[in-house]
Structure formats: structure tokens, C-alpha cells
## 1
Amino acid sequence: MKVQLTVNGEARADDVEPRLLLVHYLREVLGLRAANVGCDTTSCGACTVLLGGRSVKSCTVLAVQADGAQVTTAEGLATGGELHPVQAAFRQEHGLQCGFCTPGMVMAATGLLSENPHPTEAEVREGLEGNFCRCTGYHNIVRAVLAAAGQLDGEGALEQEVAQ
Amino acid sequence: MIPAPFDYVRATSAGHALELLTEHGDEAKLLAGGHSLLPMMKLRLAVPSVLIDIGSLDELAGIAVDGDDLVIGATTRHADVAASDLVRAEAPLLAWSAAQVGDPQIRHRGTIGGSLAHSDPAADLPMALTALGGSMELAGPNGPRTVAADDFSAGYFETAMEEDELLTAVRIPRRPGEPWGYQKFTRRANDWAIVGVATVAGRVALANMGARPLRATAVEEALAGGASVSDAAALAAEGTEPGEDIHADREYRQHLARVLTRRALEGRTG
């Protein structure tokens, strides 16, 4: 079955089996390996990409369901050699340990900030509830998302902590 | 995990989807957001030979006021129900319920009609529709019909829909300003309810206390008779025979139903 979609700004057209999952289309057909297959059961969020600007778990979307849509993966975030602000914040705040969940975290965070540009810490934690970090490195991930949203002060402490 | 092979057909209209359903019979499944169906297909718990995709049909999506009712198209996504100013104003319990489904990514894909047609007794929306006294609008080869939420679920993963019928919309009485409560007891973020309770306008619905969403009729009757919230809530488990699993045995679920009903009747959300 023919699918035509835009991935990271590039038009794509491929013949795919209807049962091909979007994550496998991205990884195996297009060679975009940022989205990881973690749990494969819509739980862990490692496969998160943006579909039509909204975060989705690409292990639970058929490639044919993305026909006509815009898909963004972590490979598509940086522009002109500059890291996307969310990527830069993850690096700055060390929002990763082993790195497996990171592409999904970055995409979920990017989607969250597009819907809510200035989230509170609680809103970040709730907004990332669909993404698991099995290293349990959540604290720095949350700091990174708040940093990307401009919510950190110069010392790197959370505003909420400073206020307490 | 890869689903078994199937043929994929994109319906061009609700009428086309019905024709395809009639043509393919029980070999076919409707696909909207796919967030109940695709996980089951990946586990090979569902092996349809044809998927009829209705996910991009504009005529089945959207939120509108129709007289005293709110009408929500079956393929409206949970995130859109949760964020709708109209739903928040006219049926806040429904907006809250939609916001409790899964996680943000799941709410971006999953649809209200898909969740209801899947008919998981532990799920949020079947309980919410039961509490709200809503109804389901169905289309089929013999024309449209309406089924009350109370009569829609026929047990675990079964509904009153025929195999050749399509859920087109959900209808909910508008109740702006009416007090409501919602309790969902889970072990972890993004789990299904171990027990859930939703209440509005004297109606009380329970999730995961049986094979389908239940009305806590003893509680409702006690409230109507002037009983206090705590006396009424103590009756929440009457007549229930909840299942047992790794999370909870029957007694514990019944205990939760009583506690959560009291909290819901106090107007609390959690």
C-alpha cells in the first residue's frame, strides 16, 4: 500500500505492508533510528514522535495511518547545525543517563512545550507521564524541560524550590 | 510485536464504512485511533483480516451543542474532548474523564467512540457516560438507532452494537454548574482503574466492579431518600461481584468502592 507523508520536512512515498508500524517504517525503511522500540506496548514512550505536531507513540500507529501527515523525529529537531532548545537543555541539564529513553523524552517534551510553553514543574511531570526512564533519571529530565521553557534561574535551581 | 497480516481500507465516508462492514462481516474491524485495537492485534489477541479506517473522517469528529445535549463525534480524540471549552462548561465530568485516559500521547490518538466500543469495564469513558446518563448514536444497514449508556455495554469487551453497526456519536445531557465527582484509584500513572467512581446529578457509576460499568443504585436511592453522603456511600458495593486479579481481591475492591464513592460524592477528583 502506498503512503505519502512528510518526515522531518522531506516528502516521502513508499509502498508498505498495511501492518507496518510507524516506528518500523521510520527506523527500517527510512533509516531514522532515534525513535526506539522499548516496551512495544504503548507504555514506555521511547518511540514518541510528533504526528501532525502532536506527540504519539509510533509503536501504536500504522505507517498507513500517517498517510498525508507531517512526522517529526528527534533527527528533525536541529536546524542549521544548532541543537533545538529542548535538545540543548537536555545536554545542559544532563537530562539523561543511559540515553535510551532520551529521544522519546525530547519529543514528548517538545510536544508538551508546543501545547503549554510555560509549564509548572508539576505540569512537566504530568506531561511526561507517558515516558519511562528506567535509569529513574527523572529529576534532571524535568529540569531540562523547565530550562527549555526558560523556567530556571541563573543558579540552575528550580524556581519552585527557590520560592520555598 | 507485529500484527498478523490484514487488508487495509480507508473509508471515504460513514456510509462507505457501513458498506465495507456489511461486505466483510465479522472478519473486519473498524480502526479509528487504534489505541485499543492495535495493541490487541500486536499481541494477536485480535486477528481481523480487514481494517476499515474511519480515523480521518471529518463527519465523525467534532463537538457541538444540540438543544439540551452535547453531541460528540465518535472519532473525536480524548485530548480534544479534554481541552474543549464547550465540554468543560457543559459536561466537566466528561472533560475530566477524557483527561484521565492513559497519557498525553495516548490521548492524542485515542477516540471517545473507540474507547466506548472497546467496552473495557475498567476504562474511564464507559464509566463517565454511565454517570452522565449519555447515549450512543449508531448507524447500521437498517438505519440509525440510539442506545442508552446504561444498556450499551454487554460485558467484558462486548457492546449492544451489531457487527455491521458503526458508533457515530455520543450524546450527553448538558449540565453546566452541576456538582460532580470523579475518583480513579490506580497503582501507577497511566494504569486502568483498580476501581473508579464517577457521580453527577444523583447518578453514581462504578468502573471495574463487574463486567460492565455499573450504576450504584443503592447509593442513588439512598441519596434520593435524603441519606447523608457517608451513609449512602457505605452502600456502594451492594450487589457487586467484582473480579479478582493481581491488584485486588473482591473484598478490597468493595472497600475501595465505598471509600471512593464517598470521596466522589464530596465532589473530589483524584
## 2
Amino acid sequence: MIRSPRLRPYISFFRLRFLGGMQYRVAAFAGILTQFAWGAMNLLLYTAFYEADPTAFPMGFEQISAYVWFNQAFLTMFMLWFLDADIFAAIRDGNVAYELVRPLDLYRMWFVKNLATRTAKVVLRCLPILVVAVFLPAPYGLTLPVSLGAFLLFLLTMMLALVLVVAFCMLIYIVTFYTMNPLGVRIIATSMGEFLCGALIPIPFMPDGLRRVVELSPFGAMQNLPFRIYSGHLSGAEMWWRILLQVFWIAALILFGRLLMAHALRRVAVQGG
Amino acid sequence: MIEVSHLHKTFRVARRNAGIGEAVRALFRREYTEIHALDDISFRIADGEMVGYIGPNGAGKSSSIKVMSGILTPDSGSCVIDGCVPWRDRRAHVANIGVVFGQRSQLWWDVPVIDSFDLIRDIYRVAEHQYHTDLDELCDLLDLGEILRTPTRQLSLGQRMRCEIAASLIHRPRIIFLDEPTIGLDAVSKLAVREFIRRINRERGTTVILTTHDMQDIEALTERIILIGRGKILLDGALDALKAKHSALRRITVRFAPGTPSPAARPLPDGITLLSADEGRAEFGVDTARLSVSAAIECLTRDIDVRDLAVTGQSTEELVVSLYEEFRI
């Protein structure tokens, strides 16, 4: 664990949030069941398509299976619509005042809170799904990674994708300082984002023109990247180029978020008496 | 040392009348009203002072507190607190201040109070030994004890407010802003909170800036008051001097046997005014500069079956109401 005193407050926030998130065991259990059902339904659908015309498939069936199971196991880590209601409430009713009288960086504090809730949720849910998926018969199960290198890069890009997702969510929070009502931005950003990041169908399945744009956008660098690296669907120069793009989008979204927040705090009044 | 000079802050508020037609109209043409929350505010507060900041709702009290605690940027003017400009050096500045917003909570709702305290300790990087000594002292003075291990959501308002105040003192701030700290508290809790604030000011030399609508708070705690109305400072001075200026007035309440003639019915001498009268009770104002209290009592109780008699000075509350009237706010 990092012992730097400068980071201590943020680590405490992470711990408190993480422990808080670990409390909801029944919710996690229900979630796991739902995700099994959902994953199975998805695979049945792809089976039907695959049997109709295997040559029209942009991915191998085992690669699809890995994608679907990862998608379900890490759902709570990458879902764009999962936003912190406390933060919206704090902005709306002015409780953000208490967060602003702390000698802390508000952007970093909210970022850490989001990382913590997502991590806590995924820790409770991912293992049962992954374990069962490994033991499912081929080609419906989760195969082992194509190589150790691919596995390590999978872990790395997973973490980067989580950071990118949170950096994107931060923009939605910050925009709420201006609009006050989070609903509009939230619905558009999350429903479109959910489709574009490949949570509904893997990005390779999208029509060519759309796919090329999406793959250059920040959405293309979210969950779809690690899942495809794991199964070997992405490798070599193309993979490295995409990892670079992922790092670029992280830097860009964080920079933009910080600038926007600095402007919001200068301009916007804290609500309520 | 707090030095505030010529602060201005204007808010634009969109207003419309009730009704669907008006709402549709407001979509296209919105009418804004400008509200001068702060209109040329200047004052200076020395270290260790205890200042009551009073004024009616919407006068600009909270806005001033927000500017001084770094969460609101004024349109113009300056504010320097111990060498920091609050909104520019926010993080450096807030490490030295404590803030209690009486209407909000800084404690985490679902966890025991002590967890919130621990987190605040980490936020301000308070040394472990100092934290323990201070926590023991705070618990002792505010009688927290068992409360610390209770989740915030299960505390009564009085218990919660005591915890809020303790929470804002964990990092030993040099200045503490209390925005309506006694709002909604019962008499016992109010007394405990006041006693505690007095002690912190006396023993640690903490500068206290207090906004409140409770005049007993002001009376019990502060020597200096700043009266603000419509964004302007109307008055800045010692509470005692202010009271002395207005203290020539006394109020005499007479209760008498029902059915007997009321003292309100008789001609009153110069210096006595009838304030209110009903069956068996009458209230008079006496200007002691013109008529002594004993002469007034003599006059009012002659030939009357008096059941009860009370002489009261003007309360701070009435003083403030008369100030509001004087300044028409």
C-alpha cells in the first residue's frame, strides 16, 4: 500500500467506499444470477447467427464467448450508466459546500470514490461468473488467454479502461454544475455510450463506417479493448496503436474534466442558503 | 486576521409567474432579476474575536460565509484571511478553518460517527496522538461518549449537531464559521453548544464567526455584532453599546382580576404607552427617560386588584426587530 501522506485522504476515501460497497451481498448474488441468464441468452443469439452464416462473423465463436462472459463478469466495472447518486445530490442541494471546505482536490476525490464503488462491486461479482464460465463446454465457455503476454496486457488495459470510464463519468457530474438537472445529459450520454463502447454488441459487429469512428473515439478504448486482447482478436501493431489511443483518451478526458471543473467552481454558485 | 473590503456579488435569478402559459413564455423570453447578495461589504475581524453575524433571511449572511470559506468567488472586492485569498488559495486556506453549516451534514449517513471522524482526521492529516487527545477532550466537553459508535442516521438533531461541531474542530482550525449552529435544537442542547463554543474561543483562542437567528445565541456568545441587510452592512459594533442606546425602554405587564376596571382604560401620563390589552391583562411601554419605573408602576396599579406584575427590559430580539425597522429591511 502507498504510504505517501499526500495520498492518505484519498486512500481513506477509497477504503470507506470499498467497504461500503462490499456490504450489499444479496444485491451481488441477485446480480450474478441476472448476468448468467443474460450471458446465456446472448450466446444463444450468437449461436443462431453463427449457424446461419459463420463466414459473416467478424470474430471466432470462442472469442465471442470470452467477450460475452467478460462483459457480464465485469459489468459493474465498466457500465457507463452507473453513476454516483450522492454526487448529483450534493451538486443539486448544495452539500458540495462541505466537500469544498476540505483541503482536497474535488476532482481527485470524486474520481477515487467512483473507482472504489466500481471495484467493490466487481470484486463481489466477477469470480463466480468467471469460474463457471471456464468450466462451460467449448465453444460456449471461457478459454484460457492466448499467451501470457496477452494476459498481462489484458490486465493492464482493463485497469486503464476503468480509469477511462470514470474519467468519462466525471464529465457527466461536472456538466451537472451547469444544468442542475442531471437527467438530460445523463440519459443521452449513457444510452449512447453504452451502445458505442460495445456493452450491447462487440464493436467489430458494427457497420464498417460507424465502427471506424467508434474505434477512434474514447468509447472504443473502453471494455472492448481488453476483452479482445485476451482472446487474441487484437494483437501486434494494431493492438499497440489502440493501447496508445487509450492512454491518449485518458489524458484528454482527465485534462478536459479538470479544466471544466475549475471553470464550474469559479462560475457556479453553491445552491441553497 | 480577517480583512474584507468592498465585496460585491450579484446573482441573476430567473423569475416567472405561476401557470402553464407563463412557463411556456419563459421558454422563449426569460426575465432575470438581479439580486445584490453582497453590496460593498467591508469589515475586519481580529484573531480570537467572537462575532455575531445577524440579519434577516436573504440578507447576505450565507454568501459572506461562503466567500470567507472559499467556496464562492465574489464579483469584485478583496478578502484576505491570514494572508490567503480564500477562493484563490482554497486548499491552503480551508486547512486552517472549520465550518459548520447548520442545515447540512458533513457526517457520513450510514456509518458510525467515529468513522466519519477518522476520515476527517485523514483528510487533514492530523497526527495520531493529537487526534486522540483532542477527541477525548471533545467527547468530554460535548458529552459524546456512546454517540460516537452510533450511525449518524440514528442520532437526534441535538446529538448530531454536537458531533458536527466536534467534526469541524478535529484539525484545530484557527477560525471557525458557524452558520446557524443551534437551528432546531432544544434548550438543553443549545446551552451545551453555546458553552462549548465559548470554551473553544477562550481556551484555544479560536476566532468564531457565528450567524444565527437565535438572539440568545448572540447574547450568550458575542460581544460584537455585524448587522447585514440587503447585502449591506448596516451596523458593526459592540452589543452592549447597542443595547445601552436602546435600553431606555421598559415593558410593564400587569395581570389583574377579571371583571375589574382595566388600567388601560384610565388616562395615561406622558411616557407610558399602551402596547396591548385584553381581558385581565395589559401591557405598557415605559420610556424611563421621561418617567421612572416606580412612578409608572404607582400609576398603573393604583386601585387595581393586581394578580401579577412584570417589568422587562427590551430583549435583544426586540432590539434587532427595531433595528430592522429602523433600517427598513
